[in-house]
């Protein structure tokens, strides 16, 4: 059997809290509506903290909270009234912290405005304002180079934000990245990068391995931590991206085991843990994915998301079988698969920086292990069943065929 490795230093000294966390992105407006106005809100998120704690989430990434971009005079320090108030955010922060969960915010920055010194001061003051209220970190959005072409302003803005955050200990700075290396240097200031390359990979063993190696090498070079996520709000959920229906769901479940077996941090986009597909777009000209609200319980839309009548985002009646209520106690459900993967990931300490070792595998398959974790992940992305590697199976994305792994299936072995 062939064996290669990608070296990663294991340094616990100075490790940030984010390096061993499982981030859960909460689209606040589509998560849970507490006041029956048809829009999810911060109180709704607070009501569901017990669910997030139960399934194993220990860091929340809130999107859609701030009413305006930071860096403009008089803006960037207000909560969108559609989702709540500063008081409701403070209550959510306090209760999340009491439950051992960190909370980070999406931070929109208008890169065209930050060239002005007055706006730079506003940006710094906004960062101090939110971190002073207990926000544990920020995911910077609307940066040139992260959501657009890389230019010098990318590095200038990130350096400015990094300098402001360094005034307070352990405040995380993250961003969407599609490669950490630029013609103007490394994005050294980012603590974590939600790497878009992994969220766009096809269900192909060769491509998956290539992207994993590339992401690990890039993050090593600048000491940042990769966040492995299978989808973002701009890209389809994995069930849809991998073909839809039972076929797409099987592949999404298999890729979840690959995702949770990698070193670094993990990002779960809300609804992915339920295996939800995209729903039908109300506007077929839009290129954005269609995301219905989270289905919590019951047999009819909107499945406990809100008590308000009518006018919902697309929420297929077929989601009745995918609600949190329907999956929570089903040991074979996609939600249970995610819960088990999170628990085993912590038990085997996969999150720490370590060496990824790739093993020889049949064509269309891959197998790897993180040093000292003692857990091997094997994926069959081929069209035929393959022999199971040596070891005891501790988690499987689908049923095995005796000692063989069927197509579209992944296993964890010790």
Chart the SSEs and their pairings.
Layout: E1 3-6, E2 22-27, H1 42-47, H2 49-55, E3 59-63, H3 86-98, E4 102-108, H4 117-132, E5 137-141, H5 152-165, E6 172-177, E7 181-182, E8 185-186, E9 192-195, H6 196-200, H7 205-222, E10 225-229, H8 238-241, H9 245-260, E11 265-269, H10 324-328, H11 334-347, E12 356-359, E13 365-370, E14 376-380, E15 386-387, E16 393-396, E17 404-405, E18 409-413
Parallel strand pairs: 2-3, 2-11, 3-4, 4-5, 5-6, 6-9, 9-10, 10-11
Antiparallel strand pairs: 1-12, 7-8, 12-13, 13-14, 14-18, 15-17, 16-18
Structure summary:
About 30% of the residues lie in helices and about 20% in strands.
Based on helices, strands and strand pairing, what is the structural class? alpha/beta
Gross CATH architecture: Alpha-Beta Barrel
Q: What is CATH's topology name?
A: TIM Barrel
Helix content: 25-40%
CATH class: Alpha Beta
Q: What about the largest sheet?
A: 8 strands, parallel, barrel
Number of strands: 18
Number of helices: 11
Overall 3D form: globular
Give the percentage of residues in beta strands. Answer: 15-25%
Give the number of domains.
Answer: 1
Task: Calculate Rg over CA atoms.
Answer: 21 Å
Query: Could you state the CATH homologous superfamily?
Result: Glycosidases
- For the residues shown, what is the average pLDDT? 86
GO molecular function, one term: alpha-amylase activity
Domain Glycosyl hydrolase family 13 catalytic: 25-327
InterPro entries: GH, GH13_cat_dom
Protein name: Alpha-glucosidase
């Amino acid at each position: 059997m062939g064996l290669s490795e990608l070296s990663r230093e294991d340094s616990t000294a100075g490790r940030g809290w984010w390096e061993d966390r499982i981030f859960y992105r909460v689209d606040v407006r589509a998560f849970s509506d507490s006041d029956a106005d048809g829009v999810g809100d911060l109180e709704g998120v607070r009501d569901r903290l017990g669910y997030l704690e139960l399934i194993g989430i220990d860091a929340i990434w809130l999107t859609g909270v701030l009413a305006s971009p930071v860096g403009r005079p008089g803006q960037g320090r207000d909560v969108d009234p559609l989702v709540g108030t500063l008081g409701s955010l403070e209550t959510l922060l306090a209760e999340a912290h009491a439950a051992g969960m960190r909370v980070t915010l999406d931070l929109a920055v208008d890169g065209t405005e930050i060239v002005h010194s007055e706006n730079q001061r506003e940006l710094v003051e906004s960062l101090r304002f939110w971190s002073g209220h207990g926000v544990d970190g920020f995911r910077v959005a609307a940066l040139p180079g992260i959501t657009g072409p890389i230019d010098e302003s990318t590095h200038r803005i990130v350096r400015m934000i990094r300098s402001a955050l360094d005034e307070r200990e352990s405040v995380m700075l993250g961003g969407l990245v599609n490669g950490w290396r630029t013609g103007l240097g490394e994005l050294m200031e980012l603590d974590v990068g939600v790497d878009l390359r992994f969220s766009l990979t096809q269900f192909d063993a060769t491509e998956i391995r290539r992207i994993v190696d590339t992401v690990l090498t890039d993050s090593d070079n600048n000491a940042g931590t990769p966040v492995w996520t299978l989808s973002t709000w701009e890209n389809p959920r994995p069930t849809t991206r991998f073909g839809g229906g039972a076929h797409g769901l099987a592949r999404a479940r298999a890729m979840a085991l690959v995702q949770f077996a990698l070193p670094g941090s993990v990002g779960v986009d809300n609804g992915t843990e339920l295996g939800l597909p995209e729903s039908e777009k109300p506007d077929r000209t839009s290129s954005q994915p269609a995301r219905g609200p989270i289905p919590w319980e019951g047999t009819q839309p909107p499945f406990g998301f809100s008590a308000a009548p009518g006018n919902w985002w697309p929420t297929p009646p077929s989601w009745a079988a995918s609600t949190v209520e329907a999956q929570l106690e089903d040991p074979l459900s996609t939600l249970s698969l995610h819960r088990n993967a999170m628990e085993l990931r912590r038990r085997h300490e996969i999150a720490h920086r370590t060496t990824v070792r790739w093993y020889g595998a049949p064509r269309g398959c891959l197998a790897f292990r993180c040093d000292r974790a003692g857990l091997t992940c094997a994926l069959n992305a081929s069209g035929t069943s393959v022999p199971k590697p040596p070891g005891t199976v501790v988690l499987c994305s689908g049923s095995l065929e005796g000692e063989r792994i069927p197509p579209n299936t992944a296993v964890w072995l010790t």
